[in-house]
Amino acid sequence: GAEGLPPGAPPRPPRQRWVWMNFESPSHSPGLRGLGGLFNWTMSYRRDSDVFVPYGYLYVPPAPRPFVLPRKTRLVAWVISNWNEEHARVRYYRQLQEHLPIDVYGARGMALAEGGLVETVSAYKFYLAFENSQHTDYITEKLWRNAFSASAVPVVLGPRRANYERFIPPDSFIHVDDFPSPRLLATYLKFLDKNKPNYRRYFAWRKKYEVHVTSFWDEHFCKVCEAVRAAGNQIKTVRNLASWFES
């Protein structure tokens, strides 16, 4: 909201460039209605931002490196810090855990060893990469770090499958929307647990790609510097910030 603006603002000094930077979803970004016409650029996880900085991405390394799947001794993990019974992810978990054992860490579960999230999750075959809200391009570190960096197959709840496939291969994840019910998803995960060749197909993309998890905030500052240099004297103004971000 406007209370976060620099002292004395608005208006924006004419020689300054303002960037609206936000990596929360629209559900957790109140106060946008009064910010129209103030900022020159947007920077967020959305692909249509002026400065696009995703939570992570895949890239092709200069030389392929062999992928070694960690030893898997457990089935499904979920790490959650903000537990809200009204969130879709908690409601879905409640139904899924009736048919499948799920180890929960964080707010309502077991404690993680400090700095040990990736190491802990790497022992699991699957990770519930459930976002706290469902919006266009809102795919966070729950996928990139918690699942991919730990070499666990992500079971995702977020935007639609087609949105995920803009960023990652279709055979690299399991979407809850692929199944009519949590019970049938649980049945499929149990099937993969017993069928190693079918399970390993979810890692075929590793032969080509590596995972990059975006570093907060140094990469973001560098991206802004690049945008300022590239723009030169060409100035634009974001007229409808709220309507764009909430769309």
Highlighted features:
three-stranded parallel beta sheet; five-stranded parallel beta sheet; 8 helices; globular; 247 residues; 2 domains; Rossmann fold; alpha/beta
Structure notes:
With 247 residues, the chain is α/β, with parallel strands linked by helices. It is built from eight helices and ten strands. The longest helix is centred in the last third of the chain and has 14 residues, at 218-231. The chain is globular and about 65 Å long. The mean pLDDT is 94.
List the helices and strands and how they pair.
Layout: E1 19-21, E2 41-44, E3 51-52, E4 56-59, E5 74-80, H1 88-96, E6 103-106, H2 117-121, E7 124-130, H3 141-149, E8 153-157, H4 161-164, E9 174-175, H5 182-194, H6 196-200, E10 210-213, H7 218-231, H8 241-245
Helix pairs in contact: 1-5
InterPro entries: Glyco_tran_10_C (IPR055270), Glyco_tran_10_N (IPR031481), Glyco_trans_10 (IPR001503), GT10-like_C_sf (IPR038577)
Domain Fucosyltransferase N-terminal: 10-56
Pathway: Protein modification; protein glycosylation
